[in-house]
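In these records, each integer encodes one residue's backbone shape. Here is one protein:

___
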Amino acid sequence: MRPSDFTSDRFGSLTTKPNSAWHHAYFMPVSIPRELSLDPETVAALSRADIALGRLSGLATVIDNPALLLGPALAQEALASSRIEGTEASLSEVLSAENEDVPIENENLREVANYLRAIEQGTELIASWPLTLRFFCALHETLLTGVRGEEKSPGELRRSPVWIGSPNARPETARFIPPHQDDLGELLADWERFVNDPSTMPSVLRGALMHYQFETIHPFLDGNGRIGRLLIGFELMRDDVLSAPILHISGYFEANRNQYYDRLQAVRERGEIDEWVQFFAAAVEHQANESAGRIRTLLDIRERYRANVRGDRSQVADLIDVLLENPVITVSAVVRALSVTQPTASNLLRRAEGLGWVRSAGRWGRGGKERWVASEIWQAVTRTDFDEEVAR
């Protein structure tokens, strides 16, 4: 880090650890502010984000079973957040892997699968646990077990310094060095109080400050970005803004990756909190509007498909919800989802093909199982063509 880059001490300053083997300067953040004076543009951005979240939340309450519309959205969130950290995988691969009833061999797909398990775990725990070190350490253990980074103490706070920069960066060339490990206890205690104490601060602003401080503290040797992004959704759930993790915010961060990192660093170096909050609020607004639009489209598809088979004596109507949960499907996945025989599952997919709901997408995975794609649902979720995505 270049000391000359740090021109403001509003949110922290560079310091050293005297009488320590670690002689490099590191950034020591101040406590998270409980009150902020923000520019009118920032206040307006927060207001737009709140309105968008309100629309999304209201829409989610009219769905008879919100879990039906979470599958692809959660997969997209897990994939985008993982790709920010260098994981190489596609949505078609992630959804196809979910159909497999065997361990996932591909390491990239295992990382995304772990992220999905961490989302499910957090969704269960948030009902009874506060957002504390215990909570995010449990998610961290799930995230890093059995994948790259497993040697970096899953579920445990780091006991050594870390630094951020290019893959071959050294402390001398790092762009950012987070707080010394001896400071983690004090900093995380303040983080816990900020997140859990009653506050009149808008939830989106709290989320922006919570995420900034978590990434700045960098409590783990690896996985900090993914856990920090997971916590955004859980903070919104804890504040009763959303009832489920249906905000795919990492998609915006992935699409604007450089700006995401630059805005976080600009708070540390120059105290540019308004710019960070505006960026964060824009991410929430954009993704909340996208999520709401996707849900409306999927609800329309479900009602049309149900109308198409009203009076049909087969179980093809039951296949609709299976496709909404995962628009990339196999015969064996239908067998498990509907508790039917393999011939019945195959016949149901052929019936769905005749109705124009699905088409064969070739063979994939161990054993070369045939997979089927519900093209209309896929496009509603991704705004892309399935074949084009597979060809990349």
